């Protein structure tokens, strides 16, 4: 039976490398927000065909440590892949929980898997192989698949390295943190990539921020296959202020993204959210910025239509969210 270890000090034991020489991998799963999905995420991690050492840390974002009786029914049985349960000791939320897991592990590599995501069996093998082929890379991502009426729809990048220009050009919904595998030493060293930013407004865009920081040093590797299944983004039709603050936060941290054509989309988003909040002055400002970079940017057109009274922006954004096409 798989042992569920509730002592944090148990993670201090180094994971020995196998005879094959494959690096050890630790997987961090933040939990507590969608507990009914945790068994599916855990099973997909424990079913990996990876032949190296693998262990899992489930980090509950809760003020109290979960009891063994509550946790054991959620843990699939796998003798050779221990699962440790911890409580988030840092900033409340998913980002603090992920960082808690990173700091508790001693493995060579660290991967993230949200409790709502599921991995394909070959994910870790493919990503570890990609890192071995690109020794200068400190992080590797992969493609994702989103549910659709006909099953699952993949979203791919068409590249095997993610350059800063690539990351600045797109919002990268296709690369959530559940696709990340990183060298742990790069995550815990502030002068390298560093931990996930816990000060992101609403704890949004922190995954994009991490990728941008990694790309400043060396382009992350990428496995262009849909190796992670993720649910569609949740509607955020009434959280415009948080969306706006988070996007302005990342643009301030990474001013280089303003230079690329994709900045038109970002300015268009800021314009729409400002219009939804009734801030006409900011909406006009951001819409002008979007048009200057790309006069065909549809979000700028939406914001301008809202300002002219031609559309009701709140209703439009809510409809887009319900249909799985967030702004």
In short:
By secondary structure, the protein is of the alpha/beta class. The protein has helices at residues 38-46, 68-71, 94-104, 123-133, 164-169, 184-188, 206-217, 240-253, 263-276, 280-293, 298-308, 313-322, and strands at residues 4-5, 25-31, 54-60, 83-87, 109-112, 118-119, 139-148, 151-155, 181-183, 221-229.
Report on this model:
- The protein has helices at residues 38-46, 68-71, 94-104, 123-133, 164-169, 184-188, 206-217, 240-253, 263-276, 280-293, 298-308, 313-322; strands at 4-5, 25-31, 54-60, 83-87, 109-112, 118-119, 139-148, 151-155, 181-183, 221-229.
- The chain is an alpha/beta fold.
- The chain folds into two domains: 4-229, Spore Coat Polysaccharide Biosynthesis Protein SpsA, Chain A; 240-322, no CATH class.
- Mean pLDDT is 83; it is low at 1-10 and 12-18.
Provide the CATH top-level class of the largest domain: Alpha Beta
Strand content: 15-25%
CATH fold-level topology of the largest domain: Spore Coat Polysaccharide Biosynthesis Protein SpsA, Chain A
> Gyration radius, to the nearest Å?
21 Å
Q: What is the CA–CA distance across the termini?
A: 46 Å
Helix content: 25-40%
Mean pLDDT: 83
What is the N-to-C succession of helices and strands?
Answer: EEHEHEHEEHEEHEHHEHHHHH
User: What's the tally of helices?
Assistant: 12
Total strand segments:
10
Query: Structural class, judged by helices and strands?
Result: alpha/beta
